Protein backbone atom coordinates (compact mmCIF):
# COMPACT_ATOMS: atom_id res chain seq x y z
CA UNK A 1 0.00 0.00 0.00
CA UNK A 2 1.44 3.34 -1.02
CA UNK A 3 -0.03 6.57 0.34
CA UNK A 4 1.00 10.13 1.12
CA UNK A 5 0.76 9.36 4.83
CA UNK A 6 -0.60 6.75 7.22
CA UNK A 7 -2.30 7.07 10.57
CA UNK A 8 -0.09 5.29 13.12
CA UNK A 9 -2.62 2.63 14.15
CA UNK A 10 -3.60 1.94 10.53
CA UNK A 11 0.03 1.39 9.55
CA UNK A 12 0.57 -0.90 12.57
CA UNK A 13 -2.50 -2.89 11.59
CA UNK A 14 -1.13 -3.26 8.05
CA UNK A 15 2.18 -4.53 9.45
CA UNK A 16 0.31 -7.01 11.66
CA UNK A 17 -1.59 -8.31 8.63
CA UNK A 18 1.54 -8.61 6.47
CA UNK A 19 0.64 -5.65 4.23
CA UNK A 20 3.63 -3.59 3.11
CA UNK A 21 3.26 0.19 3.40
CA UNK A 22 5.28 3.05 1.97
CA UNK A 23 5.03 6.79 1.39
CA UNK A 24 7.49 6.55 -1.52
CA UNK A 25 5.48 7.17 -4.69
CA UNK A 26 8.60 6.30 -6.71
CA UNK A 27 7.79 2.67 -5.95
CA UNK A 28 4.71 2.83 -8.18
CA UNK A 29 6.73 3.12 -11.41
CA UNK A 30 9.13 0.42 -10.19
CA UNK A 31 6.20 -1.91 -9.52
CA UNK A 32 4.71 -1.13 -12.95
CA UNK A 33 8.07 -2.06 -14.52
CA UNK A 34 7.82 -5.37 -12.63
CA UNK A 35 11.00 -4.48 -10.78
CA UNK A 36 11.90 -6.48 -7.68
CA UNK A 37 11.52 -4.21 -4.65
CA UNK A 38 13.91 -5.10 -1.79
CA UNK A 39 12.18 -5.72 1.53
CA UNK A 40 14.41 -3.05 3.07
CA UNK A 41 12.34 -0.45 1.18
CA UNK A 42 9.53 -1.27 3.61
CA UNK A 43 11.57 -1.62 6.81
CA UNK A 44 13.75 1.49 6.49
CA UNK A 45 13.46 3.74 9.53
CA UNK A 46 11.62 1.16 11.66
CA UNK A 47 12.83 -0.07 15.03
CA UNK A 48 14.33 -3.58 15.25
CA UNK A 49 11.12 -5.36 16.28
CA UNK A 50 8.85 -3.57 13.81
CA UNK A 51 11.30 -4.25 10.96
CA UNK A 52 11.38 -7.94 11.86
CA UNK A 53 7.58 -8.02 12.17
CA UNK A 54 7.38 -6.62 8.62
CA UNK A 55 10.01 -9.08 7.34
CA UNK A 56 8.17 -12.02 8.89
CA UNK A 57 4.71 -10.94 7.68
CA UNK A 58 3.02 -10.36 11.02
CA UNK A 59 2.97 -11.32 14.68
CA UNK A 60 2.29 -15.05 14.21
CA UNK A 61 5.41 -15.60 12.07
CA UNK A 62 7.45 -13.39 14.40
CA UNK A 63 6.29 -15.46 17.38
CA UNK A 64 7.22 -18.66 15.54
CA UNK A 65 10.68 -17.21 14.89
CA UNK A 66 11.09 -16.34 18.56
CA UNK A 67 10.06 -19.86 19.56
CA UNK A 68 12.67 -21.16 17.11
CA UNK A 69 15.34 -19.04 18.79
CA UNK A 70 15.38 -15.66 17.01
CA UNK A 71 16.18 -12.84 19.41
CA UNK A 72 16.11 -9.11 18.74
CA UNK A 73 19.29 -7.18 19.28
CA UNK A 74 17.85 -4.30 21.23
CA UNK A 75 20.02 -1.32 22.08
CA UNK A 76 20.51 -0.18 25.67
CA UNK A 77 18.18 2.55 26.87
CA UNK A 78 20.90 4.72 28.39
CA UNK A 79 21.63 6.10 31.82
CA UNK A 80 18.78 8.21 33.17
CA UNK A 81 16.06 7.75 35.76
CA UNK A 82 13.12 5.72 34.46
CA UNK A 83 9.47 6.65 34.90
CA UNK A 84 7.22 4.36 36.92
CA UNK A 85 5.67 2.99 33.70
CA UNK A 86 9.13 2.30 32.25
CA UNK A 87 10.09 0.41 35.41
CA UNK A 88 6.99 -1.79 35.07
CA UNK A 89 7.75 -2.50 31.41
CA UNK A 90 11.44 -3.13 32.16
CA UNK A 91 10.57 -5.66 34.84
CA UNK A 92 8.01 -7.40 32.60
CA UNK A 93 10.51 -7.59 29.73
CA UNK A 94 13.41 -8.81 31.86
CA UNK A 95 15.51 -5.77 30.97
CA UNK A 96 17.41 -3.53 33.34
CA UNK A 97 16.22 -0.43 31.50
CA UNK A 98 13.75 0.69 28.86
CA UNK A 99 12.87 4.07 27.45
CA UNK A 100 9.80 5.60 25.85
CA UNK A 101 9.37 4.49 22.24
CA UNK A 102 11.58 1.42 22.63
CA UNK A 103 10.13 -1.90 21.45
CA UNK A 104 10.43 -4.87 23.79
CA UNK A 105 8.79 -8.21 24.42
CA UNK A 106 7.12 -8.29 27.83
CA UNK A 107 5.19 -10.87 29.79
CA UNK A 108 1.70 -9.64 30.55
CA UNK A 109 -0.68 -10.41 33.37
CA UNK A 110 -3.66 -8.58 31.88
CA UNK A 111 -4.60 -8.58 28.21
CA UNK A 112 -7.21 -6.41 26.56
CA UNK A 113 -9.07 -6.86 23.30
CA UNK A 114 -11.11 -4.03 21.85
CA UNK A 115 -14.56 -5.22 20.86
CA UNK A 116 -14.08 -3.99 17.30
CA UNK A 117 -11.04 -6.19 16.70
CA UNK A 118 -11.87 -9.18 18.91
CA UNK A 119 -13.70 -11.24 16.24
CA UNK A 120 -10.90 -10.70 13.71
CA UNK A 121 -8.21 -11.53 16.26
CA UNK A 122 -10.04 -14.65 17.39
CA UNK A 123 -10.43 -15.85 13.79
CA UNK A 124 -6.69 -15.30 13.15
CA UNK A 125 -5.79 -17.20 16.32
CA UNK A 126 -8.06 -20.10 15.37
CA UNK A 127 -6.62 -20.20 11.85
CA UNK A 128 -3.06 -20.25 13.18
Secondary structure: elements and pairs:
Blueprint lengths: L7 H10 L8 H7 L7 H4 L4 H9 L2 H9 L16 H10 L24 H10 L1
Organism: Paraburkholderia podalyriae
Protein name: Aconitase A/isopropylmalate dehydratase small subunit swivel domain-containing protein
InterPro entries: Aconitase/3IPM_dehydase_swvl
What can you tell me about this protein's structure?
This is Aconitase A/isopropylmalate dehydratase small subunit swivel domain-containing protein. InterPro entries: Aconitase/3IPM_dehydase_swvl (IPR015928). By secondary structure, the protein is mostly helical. It has two domains: about 1-75, no CATH class; about 75-128, no CATH class. The protein has helices at about 10-15, 25-30, 40-45, 50-55, 60-65, 85-95, 120-125. The longest helix has 10 residues, at about 10-15.
